[in-house]
Amino acid sequence: MNAFTKFSLSLLTASTLVACGGDKPADVPKTDATAPQAGEGKSLVIATEANYPPFNNMTADGKIVGFDVDVINAVCAEIKANCDIVAQDWDGLLPGLLTNKYDAVIAGMSITPERQAQVDFSEPYFSNTIVWLSKTDGSFDPSNIKNLVLGSQRSTTGADYITQKYDGKDGNRVQLYDTYTNSYLDLKAGRNHAVMAEKVSAMDWLKQNGDGFGLVGDEIDNNDNLGIAVRKGDALKADFDKALATLKANGRLAELEKQHFGDTAKPAVVEPADTVKAEESATAEPAKSE
């Protein structure tokens, strides 16, 4: 069609609209009231650590399993997305997300101000408490921590807690590990005196390695909420929030907690301030050693 013909048709169309009432808005086609979700119909890649049972772990045949895996699968079903779960070491999780290696991270990751400066988080899908894991022979006393080696996994809220409170003080040294599993192995081998860990993780380890070890002292509620991490401004956050709200409302999230954690999911807790006060008021005793 040449330019003159196009111009003539345009004039004809405009004249017809005026004759029929051109100042009246054209009818807008009806649309579905429900807007499509950002993840609907998409294939998403979700990263997890795969070394933090019972939240995420890898079986002998290479399958990634755990609470985090079941939660994200349920979320993906809610938003009608096809999700592929991949393993990534802990320290590389957020860098990989920020370089578009995957779309989201679910790895028992705590929502902290430092991480929120880099990424967005969904609403919490689980709340943790932290505990001391040690020998039960009385060699470790949480009210009198002196001249001890204390372990935890690096870049966790437990690690932050003991580093700020004990490292380099009263003869104590904090040893941080790439995984909780390695911190537990050193505890069992006598290379550290106690490990500060999330209660669910510690209880899971005790199921297989409980002889002579246990939770010592009070649990500490440090407002440790876990969320799904996405890149800043990603519309997936809203989709994940909506899906998690549905899973909470219909009881599915509670079912998954019971399936993976049993009765340890909602423990009685002691506020951090109470714990600090108790420790500061404790009388000094000779340092304990193995």
TrEMBL record:
Region described as Disordered: 264-290
Signal peptide: 1-19
Transmembrane segments: none
Molecular function terms from GO: ligand-gated monoatomic ion channel activity
Domain Solute-binding protein family 3/N-terminal: 43-264
Keywords from the UniProt entry: Signal
Cellular location(s): Cell envelope
Major location (coarse): other
Protein origin, superkingdom: Bacteria
Alphabetical list of SUPFAM superfamilies matching this protein: Periplasmic binding protein-like II
PANTHER family registered for this protein in UniProt: ARGININE-BINDING EXTRACELLULAR PROTEIN ARTP (PTHR35936:SF17), MEMBRANE-BOUND LYTIC MUREIN TRANSGLYCOSYLASE F (PTHR35936)
Protein name (Swiss-Prot/TrEMBL): ABC transporter arginine-binding protein 1
Gene behind the chain: artJ
InterPro entries: Iontro_rcpt_C (IPR001320), SBP_3_CS (IPR018313), Solute-binding_3/MltF_N (IPR001638)
Residues annotated as domain Ionotropic glutamate receptor C-terminal: 43-263
Protein family (similarity comment): Belongs to the bacterial solute-binding protein 3 family.
Gene3D superfamilies per UniProt: Periplasmic binding protein-like II
GO CC annotation: cell envelope; membrane
Pfam families cross-referenced by the UniProt entry: SBP_bac_3
